[in-house]
């Protein structure tokens, strides 16, 4: 299918880019540019950082009928425990290769809210449901090349060219619903009723600022892109239920699950970060960091796959967005 082929091509390009940068620098490395601020006797200074923290934010998915919004689902990221690693290698004086990533390390629960507007989105919602959620998977990978643009005394400015990948997967269970503008209330059994996968790919440009005073090192960055892309997959489960083809929902009779696969292009991306480090030893730094990233809302195409084998294609009928932020504490060692 188009989505699968496109996804494989993009992953292949990412893998090729990753292998090229690693093979030409002998190492992966991190988003930190502390290697530019600390003197090292090594010919190729390297820093390695390990951190732990929490992730918060939310993802949104939309369904459109032309210019009208039919549905909006909001998935929480609520105090998700994460662990991260960052590595940086400096070579040829002004260049560094940086790699970073994090992954969730324990179970995380939250909430999902689903609003529907069957009378037009300029009117109050007609249907509403709320569900408990579990975040099954969440991770981020980032690789970039930094070039030292300016350095004087204890200040440096670097430019970045990089690539970032974010992935989230939720399952929603049980909950309740209010239909027909409040005239019908329904409680669901505590079973999985919706699953949602969301992922983004972002080539980006950025600037990193570093300053050092005595044993303190402060780093900040800004990154952005207008060329990110994303994919999403939503599966609604309806065990034992059938639907009338003439119903307002449009579900096919006899279908006990529906999977919606969405593709998005030219997503705007913005990321901001701040790191405060303290040198407890000559080569050991304790860090406190916060990072924020946002993928702005974008529309894309949707294909619906019904369990009876029927498929339907809808152009510009899907929407996606995401924002998240992490707060973490960690330690860096400089070789």
Automatic annotation (TrEMBL):
Keyword annotations of the record: Signal
Gene Ontology annotations for the cellular component aspect, listed alphabetically: cell outer membrane
Catalytic residues (positions): 114, 116, 234, 236
GO biological process, one term: proteolysis
Molecular function via GO: aspartic-type endopeptidase activity
Domain of life assignment: Bacteria
InterPro entries for the chain: OM_adhesin/peptidase_omptin, OMP_A26_sf, Peptidase_A26_omptin
Annotated signal sequence range: 1-27
Official protein name in the record: Peptidase A26 omptin
Organism: Ilyobacter polytropus (strain ATCC 51220 / DSM 2926 / LMG 16218 / CuHBu1)
């Amino acid at each position: 299918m188009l989505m699968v082929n496109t996804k494989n091509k993009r992953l292949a390009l990412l893998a090729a880019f990753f292998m090229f940068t690693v093979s030409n620098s002998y190492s992966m490395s991190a988003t930190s540019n502390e290697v530019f601020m600390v003197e090292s006797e090594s010919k190729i200074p390297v820093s390695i950082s390990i951190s732990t923290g929490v992730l918060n934010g939310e993802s949104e998915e939309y369904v459109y009928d032309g210019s009208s919004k039919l549905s909006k689902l909001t998935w929480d990221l609520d105090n998700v425990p994460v662990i991260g690693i960052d590595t940086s290698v400096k070579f040829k004086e002004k260049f560094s290769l940086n790699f970073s990533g994090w992954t969730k390390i324990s179970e995380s629960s939250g909430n999902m809210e689903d609003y529907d507007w069957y009378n037009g989105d300029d009117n109050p919602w007609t249907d509403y449901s709320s569900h408990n959620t579990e975040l099954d998977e969440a991770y981020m990978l980032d690789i970039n090349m930094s070039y030292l643009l300016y350095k004087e005394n204890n200040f440096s400015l670097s430019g970045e060219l990089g690539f970032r990948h974010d992935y989230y997967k939720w399952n929603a269970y049980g909950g309740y619903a209010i239909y027909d503008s409040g005239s019908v209330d329904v409680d669901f059994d505590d079973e999985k009723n919706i699953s949602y996968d969301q992922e983004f790919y972002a080539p980006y440009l950025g600037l990193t600022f570093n300053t050092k005073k005595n044993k303190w090192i402060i780093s900040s960055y800004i990154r952005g892109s207008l060329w990110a892309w994303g994919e999403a997959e939503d599966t609604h489960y309806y065990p034992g239920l059938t639907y009338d083809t003439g119903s307002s929902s449009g579900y096919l009779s006899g279908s006990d699950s529906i999977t919606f696969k969405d593709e998005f292009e030219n997503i705007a991306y913005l990321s901001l970060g701040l790191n405060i480090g303290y040198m407890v030893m000559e080569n050991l730094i304790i860090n406190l960091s916060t990072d924020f990233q946002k993928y702005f809302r974008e529309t894309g195409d949707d294909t619906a796959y019904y369990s009876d084998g029927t498929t339907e294609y809808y152009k510009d009928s899907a929407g996606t967005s995401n924002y998240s932020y992490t707060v973490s504490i960690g330690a860096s060692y400089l070789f």
